[in-house]
Amino acid sequence: MRQSILEIKQLERHIDKLKIIRGISAQVGSGDVIALLGKNGAGKTTLIETLLGFSYPTHGDVKLWGTPATKIDGDIKSKIGFVPQQSELISHISVADQIHLFRRFRHNWNQPLVEKFIDEWEIPVKKTVAKLSVGQQQKLSILLAIAHEPQLLMLDEPVASLDPIARRQFLQQLIEIASDAERAIVFSTHIISDVERIANEVWMLRDGILAYQGGLDELKESVARITIHASQPLPAGFNFPNIIRQRIQGNQAVVAFSQWTNEIGYQIENVYRAKVQVEYLSLEDIFLEMNNG
Amino acid sequence: MANHLSQLGVLARLFFVSLLAVRICLFVVAPSTVIALSGKVFDYGTWEPFFVWGSSAIAGGTIVVYIMIVIIMFPAQLISVVSSRQYGLLPYIRHYLTALIVCVLLFLQVVAYCILVFGLKSDHVTHYSLIVAIMLILGLIVMLSFTRLGPFQFFYFFTLPVLSFYLGPQLNLMADPTLVAILGGLWVAFLTWWFNWHPKKYHKSLIGISTADLNKQDSFFWGRAKFFGAVPHSLESGVLFGKFGSSFYQTRMLIIGLPLAAFIPVLIHIFFSYNVKNTLMPVIKIAIAIQIIPVGFNYSLILFKNINKFWLYFSLERIQLFNTIERNVAVFYLKNLTAITLIISTLSFFILDDFLRLKDIALLVLASLLVTATTLYTVLIAYVKWRGSVKAFHWVNAITMTFLFCLCFLGLEFFAHNELTNYLGYLLTIIMTCSIFIVLMRQYAKRLWQRVDLVRVAV
Lengths: 293, 459
Prior knowledge:
The structure holds 2 protein chains of 2 kinds.
Chain A: E1 4-15, E2 18-29, E3 33-38, H1 44-51, E4 59-64, E5 67-68, H2 74-77, E6 80-83, H3 95-105, H4 111-121, H5 134-146, E7 152-156, H6 164-178, E8 184-188, H7 192-198, E9 201-206, E10 209-215, H8 216-222, E11 224-230, E12 243-249, E13 252-257, H9 262-272, E14 274-280, H10 283-290
Parallel strand pairs in A: 3-8, 3-9, 6-7, 7-8
Antiparallel strand pairs in A: 1-2, 1-4, 4-5, 9-10, 11-13, 11-14, 12-13
Helix pairs in contact in A: 4-5
Chain B: H1 2-19, H2 22-41, H3 57-83, H4 85-88, H5 93-119, H6 127-147, H7 153-173, H8 176-196, H9 211-217, H10 219-223, H11 235-240, H12 245-272, H13 280-313, H14 318-350, H15 358-385, H16 390-417, H17 424-449
């Protein structure tokens, strides 16, 4: 049975009079694997921080397992794993001591998993965190986040610093986690191919709101880019609903739609006596179109 | 039972992470232990075990240093843990850290109590109200360090003990229930803040932090650097001493040094019942410590790290680079000395009703000259010999500074009890020996620098 893990209601977050998040409502349940996409500076990290209760929302509510995120207790925290964009581990203690420290706090510790990743990723356990490279620190952060088999895994660009081999290994592990219907994953990334590999839902953050929030397949089926070749000059702008972007030059135009239907195509052909070519986009192209790339 | 043991295990692990940093052990415990022991060896009184609260200012200063480190480093380390989002999600972490705070405070309180009762042999206060008063003052110091009251927390830390000197008798007059109520209220306020605090950003741990990042933590000064005229007067100053130049350090020393130097006589009076007006010599010692610690550790490291950067802007030969560095450090030394002498003179005039005596100025100048010159040539030699290795530099520098510390303090201790004029011959011999040593160091450094590899400093 699908359990509600995270509930967001009309969430707003303002920082120094700047509206970073402008009213987001969403739900995350067990079995969801959500990819959070957005340009640099869109507010992904701010959103993740607010969802985990690190900061107070300016308006709205965030609840984790029915409890306000800023008031979660130790039992709820034990169900969460988090990988930040940059490591915030104490730098003067060794990797082994970090693992021991985290293990002390976690009841559901999977030591074979830890040893497997230490081995595969060749993490030097005797070195202090300060002496690790950025990629090694990221691997350690990932390890510490998944070792206790959390029910909710939140990852803020977890693979940005990983080499391709480590990234592939991590994604395989993520797929295993994703296959567990009791668990949920929310991750932000810029590597679109990873999203297509594991996510079943996409949140596209733009200008502080979720410009898209829904299934990955539905997104790919609903967004289309059409090329219009007309026999006469086209107007300066089209008035059709759900236009993401349009570029018009003389008799030709390229228009991207978020909720494309064939009826719109027929309408354009009839009204403008034009030929319409429809192209369904890859996720990367959808991202570019929706973020004016 | 297993659960309690497990919880103790968590606490022990957190303690290890929070307090037992190898760097602190190496660079504070070891040298300060040597200093304390050396003071004991030359104590003309009866031989006393190291940790008995005796009359040696060095031993007492060592203990003060330990306590100060705990008060400064401990809150900063715990704040770093709490502000880290990764640690922040560990279940009940703040509860365990609270237990740790209580344990450390209890330890400090026991130490302070023992110093006051057994060291001072104070009979004029009842033990119960003394305990509560200590808990109140120490608790307030630690809590303020935790709450980090903006950029001014540094001043709170140093002015609070001075206030305590005046508050102590007032606290003694209060009824015990009032003291307990104040103490209880303090803890309620602190714990309310502690469990509800949501840090806006991650605060890096002070242990293992780079000097550049450490300086940025002191946001009051670095945020207002321009206000303090912190603009390098020359390219050399800017490159060698950091982007704010060398003058900034003098300005900062004046502003920090005054409360620090005022704080020490108060502590000495509290711990050792010395009349504040007779503490000129200890203040001189502290001034030398101020000279050694930032110059010997902080600035020398900055210099060490920036030599190769300076070379990028330098248009002459290596030996001219050597001479230019010497000249810049000499100017820096004179400014430093001026700042410290001003501080001591101000204190001696306003608090101690006494001018700085010629003998004291002479000893201050000699000690600081020895420190600065040795530090400079240690930097230059270490850079060449160990190819810019900071680790090697730290070891060499720590040993050198410890030795100088002992030498200066022994000398000052000796001349505090004996007339300078009676031992002029010996003093002149020591000065000559030190001068020859420095000249030899300089010659050696200059010879090495003829063919130095100007490497990027390897951290």
